[in-house]
Each structure stands twice: as structure tokens, then as C-alpha cells.
UniProtKB/TrEMBL annotation, chains A, B:
<feature type="binding site">
    <location>
        <position position="263"/>
    </location>
    <ligand>
        <name>substrate</name>
    </ligand>
</feature>
<dbReference type="InterPro" id="IPR036676">
    <property type="entry name" value="PurM-like_C_sf"/>
</dbReference>
<dbReference type="InterPro" id="IPR036921">
    <property type="entry name" value="PurM-like_N_sf"/>
</dbReference>
<feature type="binding site">
    <location>
        <position position="224"/>
    </location>
    <ligand>
        <name>Mg(2+) 3</name>
    </ligand>
</feature>
<feature type="binding site">
    <location>
        <position position="42"/>
    </location>
    <ligand>
        <name>Mg(2+) 2</name>
    </ligand>
</feature>
<feature type="binding site">
    <location>
        <position position="26"/>
    </location>
    <ligand>
        <name>Mg(2+) 4</name>
    </ligand>
</feature>
<dbReference type="InterPro" id="IPR010918">
    <property type="entry name" value="PurM-like_C_dom"/>
</dbReference>
<feature type="binding site">
    <location>
        <position position="308"/>
    </location>
    <ligand>
        <name>substrate</name>
    </ligand>
</feature>
<feature type="binding site">
    <location>
        <position position="26"/>
    </location>
    <ligand>
        <name>Mg(2+) 3</name>
    </ligand>
</feature>
<comment type="function">
    <text>Catalyzes the ATP-dependent phosphorylation of thiamine-monophosphate (TMP) to form thiamine-pyrophosphate (TPP), the active form of vitamin B1.</text>
</comment>
<keyword id="KW-0460">Magnesium</keyword>
<feature type="binding site">
    <location>
        <position position="227"/>
    </location>
    <ligand>
        <name>Mg(2+) 5</name>
    </ligand>
</feature>
<feature type="binding site">
    <location>
        <position position="71"/>
    </location>
    <ligand>
        <name>Mg(2+) 2</name>
    </ligand>
</feature>
<feature type="domain" description="PurM-like N-terminal">
    <location>
        <begin position="24"/>
        <end position="137"/>
    </location>
</feature>
<comment type="pathway">
    <text>Cofactor biosynthesis; thiamine diphosphate biosynthesis; thiamine diphosphate from thiamine phosphate: step 1/1.</text>
</comment>
<keyword id="KW-0479">Metal-binding</keyword>
<feature type="binding site">
    <location>
        <position position="226"/>
    </location>
    <ligand>
        <name>ATP</name>
    </ligand>
</feature>
Length: 319, 319
């Protein structure tokens, strides 16, 4: 099939353009009424980031959208457009591509209504790869940086922590064949809690709409928790020149997963002491003066593993 | 090496940020003073789009930037920012990555001064892949679409036509080993003209600054010539509901390459009859009423091959 034919099938499955100039010209033109644009890009690569035995076309479209939408939200902005670059093996089925487009659409409609795919690129690759750029609008508000946390602020999160990491462990532990290669997921073998964890991994549902809400409520710092709470909180602490002190009893029954599990795309934010947290956020700790460690858990430096680094953590032989 | 260490080395080699919020947070924030942003994305994949035996890290950085900068220019806009997603094999040398960053920087400094890399993403992949998004500003002017060509307009181009295609043919014809695999380029074996063609392929130099110039001069339609003049002119003709009539004697000594060779990233534009062409543009034909074919060459429908489609043209076994 030619690129033109594939594109027309994809465009038919995508949300309708809202741009000044949408797909089909050399570039899109988008309104940014407050004179600024928020922009971020994130890539999913077959192998380290997903496996086709575990991830459907729909899942891939969904996840490649939401991991970027979440980064826009973490600045306090509302996502308005995606640009989607899809590089895929020549033998990729048209049905897979259409499912992928449907996943993009469902993710936009669900977590960022009004956001549409306004541009993209198709190419051939031996390795299925999706690179998405998300653009957003701050709607007149200042961006919320990770560097703004102040001593005394309340540390809060919105969204799940730990579930996506447990979901990944489920895939590795239960859905590989005798040689360690990924194999199809048997949903009937999962408890309700396990199914929820798997869904958090394959089709995460980050609280994108709460990004602008937190900004409007005066969040002093905010970021997306993509690599695990401890690792991301330490980045916020480093950027702000403070330490973040977390109470593990605020993290639910599985505090260990909540501290180190990645890919939940929760929002981590700080708010001035005494301010009312916006609905959807829950307090998990406080910002304190720079201590021996950027993150303290129950008052002590945290020494467990701190999140996901594909350069050190991905082992191609593992499955 | 960790992602953080690689990133710090890359950032040191990049042009300085000009953004409200540059690299290092969840997303960049860029000023768009006229309330609009131009956005485009294009991907280069090892195999169909480049070969490491032929393309240095610097070349890859350069080309991945300019193919996107050219798309921004083709809307009549000035590029202001790049987001660069780099997916690479684990064994990729740090020196290659630093050369890649130097190529990005040199391309911005050379063809779009003031444009900087304001965000990006690093991940591991079996297939070296670069997905770049370019953002730009229309500086108060309306975008120049490919759909605006009107009967009687002069058809003009800025930049080279055919050289990049001849450069690609040189690589395939002269720099493959007995098994057909790409091998190192021996520059001393090339004539000056051949070296220029090779440079047009590996390190294209599109007339990015002429995009806004053409817009200011009243270009009625404009697009980037990336897939060959005939194919791209036919796209402009289809979008505008007209035909484009090209005089082959305006295309230099090698009209055949100029008509079908891809990847030059020249600008194809139309201007009202009788208007003075901006410096850098040369007339190659006229817009006429819709004829039997969207593109006429010397008055006849063009029947030669019309450009590059990776879905049909890339043969992995070819080298």
C-alpha cells in the first residue's frame, strides 16, 4: 500500500482537526492565543518500551498519546495537538495501523478532549517506533516548573502510583514462554486487581485534566511521575534545591511499588503549606530543607531502587 | 552510560536555548508572539533513510534538522525550535552522539539562525532512528498553503533540484561492496560536480530563510520539494485544483534529475503573474487550468517516474 493510501485510512480514524491548518500541508498551524506553546516529545520503541505480544495497536496508540499528554499537563497546560511519527516494518497490517489510530483518538477524547492529531510522518523501519510530540496551551497561566518547590510546601500526587510497575512485572512473570519470549496475555487468568495493574501498564490513564487545575490552584512545582516516585521526586528536589520527605503510609498498601514503579504518569505537585489541595490530589509528604538525600522516606534516606533507566535496565535477553 | 550523562553531553554541544522554558523540565515553553505556532515532524530511519557507512553522526544531525526546518519554511514561517527524539542501539559511541548534536547545531546556525533544540527524548532501539519536530513562527503573516496556486501564476523554485537524487545514485552505484552493502565513500574518487551532488544528498542546504521572504512577497502557494519536483508539484496542483506547466529548459542541464530526484528540499512557490520574484527564486513554469494531468512538462503529461515513496521504493536487499 502507498503512503498516501495508508495516510488516508489513518486520517479517517483520527479525531477531527481543530487547527488553523491541519494535516495535509508541509506543517500544521495551531492557534496559541496566549502567545506561548508548550511542547514535548516522547518515543516508544518495540523492545525496550513495548512488545507486540503484549500490546495491541490500540494500546500502542493510546499509550504513545497519553505519555506525552501527561508531560504537557505537568507544565500546567492543556494539550491541544499531537504530531505522530510512526516508523513500522513493511509487513505491518493495515488493521494494526487503524487500531493504532483508534487508540490515539480514544486517548485524546478520554484524557484531553479537544486535542487532535494535527500532523505526522510515516516511514518504514525494521523496528516499530512511535515518536509523538504534544503541544499545549498554558491558557494565560505561568508554567509550573519542577524547580519551584519551597520548604514547607505540601507534596501531593494525583493518579495511581505503582500499578503500572506491577502490571509490567505481571507481564514478565506470567506471560512469557519457556524461552522467555513474550506471549499472549490470558486475561481470564488475572484477578480484578491484577487486571487493573495490567491496564495501568498497557493503557495508562493519567490525570491530564488536573494539570491546569493544579496550576490554577497555585502549585509551586509539578512534574509527571514516569520513572518512579523516588527518582522523579529526587529530580524535583534537585531542581528546587530542597529535599522531599515522603510518608510511606500515604502510599497505600503497596508502598514499595508506589515508591519505585515507573510509567504511572501520575502528577507530582507541591502546594503552599495550608492551601487546600485541588480535588484529585492527595498529600504524601512535605518539602524540607536540603538533607543528606534529595528524597527521604519516613524520615530516612531512601536506598531502594529508584525507577527505570532504559540504558541500564533493559536487557534484550530478558524477553 | 546513563541517560542523564548522555543528555548532559548532548546539551553541551547544542545551540543555547532561547525558550521561556528550555530543556530539562517535562516540556519546553516557547514564545509565539503572534498567537500561532507552525509544527511539523519528520523521521530518519537507518536503512530506508540513511546508512551509517555513508552518513556520519554530523550528517545525520544536520539532515534530520534541515528536512524539518524546510517544512516550516514552506509555510512561510521562520523556525524557532526543534524537539529531537533519538532512538539508538545500546552500543552507539558517545562520539557519534556528540557529532550528531554538533550537526544539529551547525544546521540551525547555518540555515535557521536563532533556532535551537528546546527538547527531546533518548531511548534505546535496535534501529537508529531520529524523529525531529520543528516549530516556527509566521511573524504575523498568513501561512502559505499548497492549495493557493491560481491559474496564470508564475511557478518558481529556490534551491537545487536534482542534485540530492544524483548524490544518492552515486552512493548506490559507486560505494557498495561486492555483496551490495554500503561501504565508505572515497571523496578523492569524485569530481567536483559529483562531490557537490553527494553533499546535497548527505548535507542538504535548503533555502529556509527564503520561506518568510516568499510569504512577504505574496507567494500564493508554497511547498517543500522533498519527493521530487513532479510528484510535489502534482500535490500542489491537486490541492489547488489546477495544473502546473513546467518548462524543462528552465531546469538546467540535467532536467531529468531535476524533475524526479528527491530530497533536495527546494522551495516550490507560485506568485501572481507579473509580480517580481524574490531574490533566490527562478521561474520554471506557469499555473494553468486543470488539464489531463496535474503536471505538464513542455506542454505534455509527464510520464516518467515521479519521486520517492519508501513503501514502494525501498528494497532492503538492494544494499
Amino acid at each position: 500500500m502507498s503512503e498516501g493510501k495508508i495516510l488516508s485510512r489513518i486520517l479517517a480514524a483520527l479525531p477531527p482537526s481543530r487547527a488553523i491548518v491541519g494535516p495535509g500541508d508541509d506543517a500544521a498551524v495551531l492557534a496559541m492565543p496566549d502567545g506561548r506553546v508548550v511542547a514535548t516529545t516522547d518515543t516508544l520503541v518495540h523492545g525496550p518500551d513495548f512488545r507486540l505480544a503484549w500490546t495491541s495497536g490500540f494500546d500502542l496508540g493510546w499509550k504513545s498519546a497519553v505519555v506525552n499528554l501527561s508531560d504537557v499537563a505537568a507544565m500546567g497546560a492543556a494539550p491541544t495537538a499531537l504530531l505522530v511519527a510512526l516508523a513500522m516494518p513493511e509487513q505491518t497490517a493495515m488493521s494494526f495501523i487503524e487500531e493504532f489510530a483508534a487508540g490515539l483518538r480514544a486517548a485524546c477524547d478520554s484524557v484531553a478532549p479537544g486535542c487532535a492529531v494535527e500532523g505526522g510522518d510515516l516511514t518504514v523501519s525494521d523496528t516499530l517506533t512511535v515518536a509523538v510530540t504534544a503541544l499545549g496551551s498554558l491558557q494565560g497561566q505561568p508554567p509550573v516548573l519542577r524547580s519551584g518547590a519551597r520548604v514547607g510546601d505540601v507534596v501531593a500526587v494525583a493518579g495511581t502510583l505503582g500499578a503500572a510497575g506491577r502490571g509490567l512485572a505481571l507481564l514478565f512473570d506470567r506471560f512469557r514462554d519457556a524461552e522467555g519470549a513474550p506471549c499472549a496475555v490470558d486475561l481470564t487468568s488475572l484477578s480484578d486487581a491484577e487486571a487493573a495493574d495490567l491496564s495501568a501498564q498497557l493503557r495508562p490513564n493519567p490525570p491530564v485534566s488536573l494539570g491546569p487545575v493544579a496550576a490554577a490552584a497555585g502549585a509551586t512545582a509539578m512534574m509527571d511521575v514516569s520513572d518512579g516516585l523516588v527518582l522523579d521526586a529526587s529530580r524535583m528536589a534537585e531542581a528546587s534545591g530542597v529535599s522531599v520527605s515522603i510518608q510511606s503510609d500515604s502510599l497505600g498498601l503497596d508502598a514499595s511499588s508506589a515508591l519505585t514503579g515507573g510509567e504511572d504518569h501520575a502528577l507530582l505537585a507541591t502546594f503552599a503549606h495550608g492551601s487546600e489541595l485541588p480535588e484529585g490530589f492527595r498529600a504524601i509528604g512535605v518539602v524540607c530543607a536540603r538533607a543528606s538525600s534529595p528524597v527521604l522516606v519516613d524520615g530516612a534516606a531512601f536506598t531502594g531502587r529508584g525507577g527505570w533507566d532504559p540504558y541500564n535496565d533493559w536487557d534484550a535477553t530478558r524477553g
